[in-house]
Amino acid sequence: MSEEKFDVEGFEKLKAAFDEYEAEQKERFKNFSVGLLKSSKVPQEANVPGAGWVKFVLLTHNELSDLAKFYKDDQREFELQALLKMMKPCYPDLTEKDLRDAPWDLVRALEKALLNEGFLPRQVRRSMTGSLGAAKPSGSQPSSISTTTP
Question: Domain range for residue 111?
């Protein structure tokens, strides 16, 4: 009878793939935490291409609704005002004129990172970890709000 050799390298690759899949599933299906609802004014950070790490606070449903009602006919103005409202608590000297006078591509990058990707805290970070910022969630992305996972 011939002895079969155990493929250690193949096993390690398979185990790593499984661990990555399991981490993605835990992130995807983690338990809801009421703390997520209560943390809108806790400063967050997102890595914005061309600007670096930018601090901001999340807007509440009421704040967004009020902005949407007031600027219902002007999407660009809505986005600019939302961006200002998110950044102003972290940068008290920031003015509306500063945003209006900034290069268009920088303002668009800020809007993309903070408005489009920054609403859920798990997509941004609070501490310098070397991660690449407001990325799509993955198993290796740090969570800014700790929750219990199954």
Answer: 55-133
State how far the Cα of 41 lies from the Cα of 63, in Å rounded to an integer: 12
Residue 150 lies in a domain: no
Assign 55 to helix, strand or coil: strand
On whether residue 112 sits in a domain, the answer given is yes
Distance CA 114, CA 123 (A): 10
* Cα 113 to Cα 99: distance, rounded to the nearest angstrom: 15
Dihedral (CA of 102, 105, 111, 114) sign: negative
DSSP state of 77: H
User: Is position 114 within any domain?
Assistant: yes
- Scored b (16 or more CB within 10 A) or e, 59-95 reads beeeebeebeeebeeeeeebbbbbbbbbbbeeeeeee
pLDDT in tens, 54-109: 999 888 888 989 998 999 899 899 999 999 999 999 999 999 999 999 999 999 99
The region of weakest confidence among 11-15, 23-27, 78-82 is 23-27
Taken as a whole, the chain contains a residue count of 150
Number of domains in the chain: 1
